[in-house]
Design a protein that fits this description.
The chain has 362 residues and is of the alpha/beta class. It contains eleven helices and 17 strands. The radius of gyration is 21 Å and the shape is globular.
Length: 362
Amino acid sequence: MESEAFAVVMAGGGGTRLWPLSTRTRPKQFLRLSKRSLIQETVARISPLFPFERICVVTVRGQGELISEHLPEIPVKNILEEPLARNTAPCLGFAAIHLKQIDPAAVMVVLPADHYIEEAGRFRQALTLGMEVAQQGYLVTLGIVPDYPATGYGYIAAGDVLSGSQDDIKAYHVKHFVEKPSLAKAKTFIDEGNYYWNSGIFIWKVERILEEIARHMPELYSGLEEVEASWKCSELNDIIAKVYQKQEAVSIDHGVMEKASRIAVIPVEMGWNDLGDWNSLGAVLEKDADGNVIHAKHIGIDSKDSTVFSLQDKLIATIGLENIVIVDTPEALLVMDRKRAQDIKEIVVKLKMESKAASTSE
């Protein structure tokens, strides 16, 4: 390779659709669904490709110590804390400026901290090809081969295959990005066969992503220049906070990828799941003979296709349930029809409004 590659793990999300298991003080990426937390699983998957000193983690201010607890192998200097959550465009711009100080020609591999990937070897194969394609000046994203017409994901339309692709996994020119579609349109995408789910996993050279941010998000780029100019100043954290205050919350997809040139997609089947809600979580966890996902002290009679998850050491008994989600934590109890999993965000919004109203009235 012409330059070193670094992994950037994004670990600042709140995972509100997994409330009440995931909260502001117990974010989704730190949840343990197996022997390791999700962020530990993420780093373990990429460790054959990246030594710990070339893995960076971007989180929100106040979670740096928690990152170090889960990932003691990662150098503290590689843990970047954002002063405010402003979605992925400012996050990745900040990370790019950080890597530019280390190696201006670096390749940057961007990974969410909270995804589930069953076939780690296949995943690393796709990343390896992605790094080769990125060296050619492309902004690369991994596309997930869809197995049903999902309406909750954005799609990527692939065009012609790029030269130099490997035999069993290929990179394609991106024709365009598509917002979350209607069910009818998603079915059409599946039938056409060249549309892939947008995974949120990206690979690019630092200089290329900064060029595109400068072109399509000039206000953000101006702020990043201010941060870079102050990189060795004692007031750096204050300057970063000031810059973030001015930024809108914009994803890298909307801010850059949908408008940029030279975009490539690598379609891959690797047992991927973004664990976005209680339905997707239930899809990857082990089920009993009745289709139930049980992570609790539980006894059930005639309960089917339900999820029971508890952080507490008390018995949960169910009778005659079907397609129900029960989540018990020290802070809250959720009982929900599985089909309403997407509506949890409305509960979270109401809780925030009530908390704000209560603090105002004091």
